[in-house]
Amino acid sequence: MKAALGVKIFAPGLDKAIAGARLFVAEDEDEESYFKDICMDDLSTLERFTVGAKGKGVYVQASTLGALEALLTFLQSNKVPVFDFGVGPVFSKTIRSHVLMTERAPEYACVLAFDVPIDPDAKALAAKEGLKIFTGKL
Known about the structure:
It contains five helices and four strands, in the order αβαβααβαβ. The chain is an alpha/beta fold. The protein is globular and about 50 Å long. It starts with 28 loop residues before the first helix and ends with a strand.
C-alpha cells in the first residue's frame, strides 16, 4: 500500500486558495509579486475552456491544475461538453451542483474524477441521485 504524504497549512486568506495549486514562499515583496504573476499564468490557461455554454455537459474534477488542463484539453478535442470543473476531492457539494444534469441531459450525468479521493457521502449521494462517478489514477 502506497502511503500518501500531505502538509496542512494554516494561514489567513486560505479560503481563496485553490486546491492543487503550486505553493511558493516569498522572502520579500518583489518575490511576492513575481509569484502572484506565476499563479495568475497558471489560472489563465483554464480561461480558454468554455463551460456550461449550452447548459449541459460532464463535471470534471482533478487533483492539480495541470491534470485538470490536460483532461479539459482532451475532452475539448473529442467534443465532449463540460458543464463545470474543479480541483481537489469530490464532496457532496460537487454532486449536488451537477445532479440537475440527470434531468437536463442524462447522457452527461457524470463526474469525471481524475486522481482525487471521493468522499463516501458524495459517493452515496451520487448513487441515490443516479449520477455516475468515473475515476482514474496516475
